[in-house]
Input
Amino acid sequence: MSRENAAKPFVIGVAGGTCSGKTTVAERLVEVIGPDNLALIRQDAYYIDRTHEAFEVRAAANYDHPDAFEWPLMIKQLTNLIAGQTTKVPVYDYADHNRSAEVEVIHPTKIVVFEGILTLIDPALRELFDLKIFVDTPADIRLTRRLQRDITDRGRTHDSVIAQYLATVRPSHEFFVEPSKRFADVIFPEGGQNDAAFNVLVARIREVLR
Output
């Protein structure tokens, strides 16, 4: 599928700490705007392939550090999508701590949302965004949400979640994620359920779709 003669899509980058609500913002946008008009890409899809590593090594890796991502592929695929090309995005398996053999086919749309913890740290990636958002949520709330998510959805133990948070998640947030807030055009306080901020964003997108 190609949109070579169509206008460039409006591209939104959504960043924020772990369990800040950035995914909630992105998924709410898909619900309101509709998948025919809005394509969602998750930065987690671009975790590097670790097939050569043992499971224990993969489980202990720092997934909140920039080195955990395949940046060239990430930027190339988003650039291709912006250019009107259908893109096959990797699918990440959280239980296996590795990229799966599946891909997600993303078709060109008028609105593209790219979300992830490190969405705003790379200048080349930032250049692709027409609007940059940082979802800002207190650390205690983010940790509570991460505990619930990882234990319920990803089969982790309470102790393993806390150990990972202290060893890699918190330091990476303070060193990489939090400083990237300065690159945001808009900051969502109190996470993805901030209806006032969300409604302003929806209004902006609907202007683009006219």
Notes: The helical segments are 22-33, 55-60, 71-82, 123-126, 139-153, 158-177, 195-209.
